[in-house]
Write a structure and sequence with these properties.
Helix content: 40-55%
Radius of gyration: 13 Å
Number of strands: 4
Number of helices: 6
Length: 108
C-alpha cells in the first residue's frame, strides 16, 4: 500500500467533516474501503495542530473520546471542538451519536 496516497485519501475525507460534527478513525477507514483505524490514526498524527486547513480535532475514537487524551496533548482538540459548540466532558464528546458524521454515508 502506498502510504502517501493513503494519507492523502484520509486528509481528503477529514476536509469534508462539517463544523460541529465528529467522526472516528474507523469510520474514515471504512469509508475509504481500505486501511484500518490505526492507520488513519497514524496519518492524523502527521498533521500539525497548527494546520488550520484540516479539522483534525473532529476525528475521535469509536467511543467519542479525544485521542490523544487531554493530558497527552489533546487539549487543543478539545478547545477547537468547544469553539464549534461541541460539548466535551471528561475527554469524551457529549452526545457523540447525535454529532457523529458517517463519511461512508455522507460522501457517497
Amino acid at each position: 500500500m502506498d502510504t502517501r496516497q493513503f494519507n492523502d485519501d484520509v486528509f481528503q475525507v477529514v476536509e469534508l467533516i462539517p463544523t460541529g460534527r465528529v467522526t472516528s478513525y474507523g469510520a474514515i477507514a471504512k469509508a475509504l474501503g481500505y486501511g484500518t483505524a490505526r492507520m488513519v490514526g497514524h496519518a492524523m498524527g502527521m498533521i500539525d495542530h497548527d494546520n488550520k486547513t484540516l479539522p483534525a480535532h473532529r476525528v475521535v475514537n469509536s467511543s467519542g473520546h479525544i485521542s490523544p487524551p487531554e493530558n497527552s496533548g489533546g487539549k487543543w482538540r478539545i478547545q477547537m471542538l468547544e469553539q464549534e459548540g461541541v460539548v466535551v466532558r471528561n475527554g469524551k464528546v457529549a452526545q457523540f451519536k447525535g454529532l457523529f458524521w458517517d463519511p461512508k454515508i455522507e460522501i457517497e
